[in-house]
Amino acid sequence: MIRTGMYIVFGYLCGSILFARIFAALLQKGDITVQSKDGNPGTANAFLYGGLWCGLLTLFGDLLKGFVPVQLYLKGTGLDSCRMQLTFVILAPVLGHLFPVFNGFHGGKGIAVTFGCLLGLFPDLCPALILAFVFLFFSLVVRITPHYDRTIWTYRCAAVCMLLFVKNIYIIMAFLAIALVVNIHMRCGGGTKEKCQVRILWKH
After folding, report:
1. Is the pLDDT of residue 179 over 90?
2. Burial group, residue 184, by CB count within 10 angstroms (0-12, 13-18, 19+)
3. Tens digits of per-residue pLDDT, 105-159?
4. Residue 118 CB: number of other CB atoms within 10 A?
5. CA torsion 135→139→142→148, rounded to 10°?
6. How far apart are the C-alpha atoms of 53 and 23, rounded to whole Å?
7. Does residue 73 contact residue 113 with C-beta atoms inside 8 Å?
8. Residue 18's closest CA among 111, 92, 112, 100?
9. Total tally of structural domains belonging to the chain
10. Residue 168 structural domain
11. Is 103 buried (19+), middle (13-18) or exposed (0-12) by CB count in 10 A?
12. 69, 89 contact by CB (below 8 A)
């Protein structure tokens, strides 16, 4: 129990590291949270306002801060022997990213760190592949804009797919909790929200 608690805290603190702000500062791109409309210190704005390298480094960092805590925890426990504690270990880095202690509890949307957490379940890649498929579907096939709405619908649809295709109940519970928290966080967030648009790309 103590070990699980340590990994939950470790995961939260890892999630609280906002690489978008760090790499934007290192690359002298300014404060992307000030430049962006939504003030979001996440991967999407790192690409939009920090450029390619800032975006790629942020993406790698956000994936890693989800991957490392989950993978290290499973190294000592094993996926088959995990129970409810696994749910909280998966959830912790995402909570850290959404409510980072190092940034006044104002964080990003969480797609990249969620994907990192699911990659941390390796060799079980089914949950990560589901999230990747849904996100790419809403980006490349049926494109939902702005990114705010695409994120919300990605989590909602991925949650349904997890229920259908993932066998581990604790992984399902973790993702449902993540999807719920992300949706509430984004719905309650401030900032100007653009009108949602849906386009089928092959018709344009």
Report:
1. yes
2. exposed
3. 888 889 999 999 999 999 999 999 999 999 999 888 888 877 778 889 999 999 9
4. 29
5. 80
6. 9
7. no
8. 100
9. 1
10. 2-203
11. middle
12. yes
